[in-house]
Amino acid sequence: MQRFLRSILGSQQSGLVMVILGLGAILAFFAGSHEDKATGAMVNNFLNAGTLLQVATDASFFAIMAVGMTLIIVSDGIDLSIGSIYALAGVTMAMVLAALPPSVSPVMTVFIGLGISLGIGLLCGLFNGAMIVGLNVHPFIITLGTMWVFRGIAFVASKANSILVPQPLTDVAKCTLGLGKALYPVPLLTMLLITLLGAIYLSKTVMGRHIYAVGGNEDASRFCGLRVKRIRIGVFVLAGLTAGIAAFLGISYYGSASCGDAQGYELYVIASAVVGGASMSGGKGSAISAMLGAILITMIRQSIRTLHFDQNYEWIIIGCAIVIAVVLDQFNARMMQRRLANAAAQARVQQMSSAK
Amino acid sequence: MKNWMKSVALFAALFGITAGAVAADAAKPAKEFKIAMIAKSSTNPVFLSGRAGAEFAAGELSKKYAAELAKMNYSKIVIDWRTPPNEDAQLQAQRIAQSVNDGVDAILLSCSDAGKVNGAINDAVARDIPVFTFDSDAPQSKRFAFYGVDDIETGRQTMSEMAKAIDGKGKVAILSGSQNAPNLKKRVEGAQTEAKKYPGIEIVGVFNCVETPQDAAAEVVRVTNAHPEITAWAMVGGWPLFTKTLLKDIDSNKIKIVSVDALPAQLPYIEKGLTPTLLAQSCFLWGSIGVEKIVDKVILKKDVPVMNKQELVVVNKDTLGKWARQLKEWKFDDVPEEYLKLP
Hints:
CATH class of the largest domain in chain B: Alpha Beta
Shape of chain A: globular
CATH topology of chain A: ABC transporter involved in vitamin B12 uptake, BtuC
CATH architecture of chain A: Orthogonal Bundle
Strand content of chain B: 15-25%
Strand content of chain A: under 5%
Radius of gyration of chain A: 22 Å
Number of strands of chain B: 12
Number of domains of chain A: 1
Number of helices of chain A: 14
Strand order of the largest sheet of chain B: 2-1-3-4-5-11
Mean pLDDT of chain B: 87
Strand order of the largest sheet of chain A: 1-2
Low-confidence stretches of chain B: 13-30
Number of helices of chain B: 13
Oligomer: heterodimer
Largest sheet of chain B: 6 strands, parallel
CATH class of chain A: Mainly Alpha
Order of helices and strands of chain A: HHEEHHHHEHHHHHEHHH
Largest sheet of chain A: 2 strands, antiparallel
Helix content of chain A: over 70%
Distance between the termini of chain A: 44 Å
Distance between the termini of chain B: 71 Å
Low-confidence stretches of chain A: none
CATH topology of the largest domain in chain B: Rossmann fold
CATH superfamily of the largest domain in chain B: Response regulator
């Protein structure tokens, strides 16, 4: 038991979990309460099923994309176009579904929507990866360009209209799974599933370890025989795929798609990965931490409203949280280097004294 | 982090959660009638005016209907401002859901994209939270009523006032904002339809701009330079007139502007003659009428008409003083003093 507790406390994510729990405790304490209209019972404004699930739902769209972004950041890259991929995948899906004949069954409609959204996400990711590797240009520049290109295509294709998606998609995304009125756990469950898959991929598969290797030292990886270019394209494809999944889920949940969707979300997604501990210099990061980072950022946004702070402080607080996370990350890396250097020096002294 | 620090932090967190739960059990029932107000953007002055209107009405109606409120165990009406900083329909939908979870009693909403918020509105109504829309409607949702201008009519009126200003002949450019704002599209449509009535008016084009004063003013100057034949601007939103740039950059002898909105910063354009007419939306009333209608429905149990049309107010040199005083009454503190003294 003690060993189990020690392993949990010693895990990479324990610090983030502590912060989330601490913030949750503060919110629960100071949130106040209200009378539930249906039951007449007093309900804590934060500690209630509706709010907790809402926080998880709001976080889920960022978190799913943050898993993909983490893969890119671990490989020492960046993707500024992820929000635009979301918009393009959503708009394309909505337009195709709107053109389907009414005879198509609801199940088929959902699968077609899912296929299109994922397909567009995948293609956009492939395009990004191929451009970066093929032209040998930094991902920041390429994805800065494709951020406008993808959103522009969505804009031209949709003529800036908001396109409603068929009801079966919303029924899937807003399925209560027996939880009761207005409690929709599908985004939360999808977020957990994608995070789990991302965590397994990164930590338990050879391909995942290759990403860490490329991000940690690209030259060494190349000399070791890793196909660096292929790995780089692969991470962008997977990130595009996560944007496609998030688009399918988000557009289905809210019921319509427009070219303005997810504008500025790339910054929240990158922030989630970075707050989760992903190192912008590559070689470090985890899918679970990225999800926790997204939850933490969403909770910070929620806390501003729950505690009735002036909401204009939201950007300042999130900005500070990102800077603090990156500074802590660098400080931690320096301390680790110093500790390793000290340990190596001590080992040398011991070797020399034993040789004498 | 060292293990003992983690243990302390974990203990503190668990203690906090327990204390929070205990505090929740011990808390007293909320006594305020809380209306969540979710406009399109908290950086747009028209919505800040709407907020002032809602807060004013909340205060007045709290006094007027104190007895009725007390019968329902409410002490007063309060406005809970939950407008996103930028236009983001998905964020609006999230804030509607959050408001419901936080136990608000009603929602006052201006929709950035009706398709995105329909589901959230219907969820709120399903949990007995009435929703009233203003400025931009969600007609396919279960909101109980709407208050705002007719956008097609607004576009028509902008063009007909323009036709009066240029004697029915000239080359007119139309300025609109975001391409995916449905209300602006309707205004442009109305303006184009109205223009067809005047054979002497030729539409040079519809120009979209970023809905910030600086970007909008820059777009007007760019287009005017590129199309020297332009003799008039019909603006379905008044963003560029929030700056003073056009007072210098555009020659009032060559070009006339007619625009929707008439907030204090825009009034010098009337005085200088560049803008013969501004069509004011009474944005203060978005909030005050919205609160009144919610109180009518929920507290007084009255029937509220579904569509509540707002009329545009024509502001020109003759009515400038009266309008300036009206703005001052509506809590605008930046109305130039000299206009208040006008007849």
